[in-house]
Amino acid sequence: MHIESDQEGYRSCVNNSTSCQAYITYQALQDDTLQPVGLCFRLSVEQLAEALQIAQYLSVALDLFTSMDCELSSVTYIVGLKACRGLASEKESDKGLYLEKGITIHKGVKEHGFKTDIVVATNFLEMYSNCSSMHHAREVFESMFSQDAVAWNTLILGYVENGDYAVAMDLFSIMDCEPNCVTYLAALKACGGLASEPESEKQHHLQKGIGIHKKLQEGGFGSDIVVAITLVDMYGECGSMQNARDVFDRMIQCNAVTWTSLILGYVGNGQCSEAMDLFARMDCE
Question: Max Cα separation, the chain?
C-alpha cells in the first residue's frame, strides 16, 4: 500500500489498529516503500502511537515518536510524554534515561510554542513525577499561567508518590482552587505517610486526617470504596484502629482489598489477635 495513493485507506488501517494489529502497522511503517507525508503522517503517527500505548507497546510508541521528521502537534508531544511516563513507571532502573528523553521533548515543546497549553503542561507534571524529578515538575507548575484542580492534584500526588509528604501537605494547605475527591485522597495519603515518622507526631497528623475525612463526607464522597480504603489505611498508619474499624463497618460492600487494609492496620499497630479474628471472619464471609 502506498501512502500517497491511498491515504484514506491508511488512516482506516491505523484507526482500527489495537494490540498486535497496531504493532504490525508499526512494522509496516519501517518498509522503505512506504512514504508517509504531511498531515496524513502526523495524524497516523498520533493515532498509531496511542494504539500502541493501549497495547502496552510503550517502547515502540516512543521509538515512533522520536522517528517523526515532520511538524509535531501538541497531541504528538503528549503521546511522547505518555510513553516516557509509562516506561519510567515500568522500569525503575531506567528512570534517568526516560527523564532525559522527557527533557528533550520539553525543549521541543518550548521551541514550538506549546508550553502554555495546560493539557501539555499537566502531562509534563505527570511525566516528571513518574521520573522522580519533582524539581522539574515544580518548575513546570510554577510556569503555568493558571493552575486548575487537575494540575494541583497531579503535583500533590507526585510529591506523595515520591515520599515528599510534608511538601504535599504544604501544597494542599495553600491550594487556591476548589479541592475535589482526588485532592483529598492525595492529602490522606500524605497524612498517613507523615504519621509513619516520629511517634510524637501521629496525633497531629491524625487530627489533620480527621479534618479531611469530614470534608469528604461533606462533599458526598464518604461511601466511595476507594475513599474508604484510603481512610482505613490512613487511620491505621496514624494508630487509630477504632476510626479505621468505624470506616470499615460503615462500608456498604467489602472486598479483599478492604479486608486486607484493615487486617494490616491491626498488624502494624501490634494488635495481632484482632488481625487473626478478622482473617478468620474474612475466610468465612
Answer: 74
Alpha carbon distance 141, 262 (integer Å): 36
Query: Other CB atoms closer than 10 Å to residue 4's CB: what's the count?
Result: 12
Compute CA distances 117 → 75, 84, 148, 204, 238, whole Å. Answer: 11, 19, 12, 39, 40
Under a CB-based contact definition with an 8 Å cutoff, are residues 190 and 172 in contact?
Answer: yes
If pLDDT is split at 50, 70 and 90, which confidence band does 12 have? very low
* Nearest CA-CA partner of 58 in 12, 10, 90: 90
Q: Apex CA 270: angle with CA 265 and CA 274, to 5°? A: 70
Backbone angles phi, psi at 240, to 5 degrees: -110, 80
Residue 68: its pLDDT value, please? 64
* CB 260 within 8 Å of CB 237: no
22 in Cβ contact with 48 (< 8 Å): yes
pLDDT digits (tens, 9 = 90+) for 74-113: 777 787 888 888 888 877 888 898 899 889 889 888 877 6
* Residue 4, CA atoms < 13 Å, CB-side half-sphere: 4
Report, in this order, helix, strand and coil percent for the chain, each rounded to 5: 75, 0, 25
Residues 37-63 have pLDDT tens digits of 343 444 445 555 555 455 456 676 676
Q: What's the rounded Cα separation, in Å, for the pair 250 and 227?
A: 12
Angle between helix 202-218 and helix 225-237 axes, rounded to 10 deg:
160
**CB of 227 closer than 8 Å to CB of 221:** yes
CA 79 to CA 99: how far, in whole Å? 15
- Beta carbons within 8 Å of 95's beta carbon, 6+ residues apart: 88, 130, 131, 132
Residue, of 170 and 6, whose pLDDT is higher? 170
Q: Give the C-alpha distances (Å, rounded to integers) separating 209 from 106, 187, 194, 260.
A: 37, 8, 11, 20
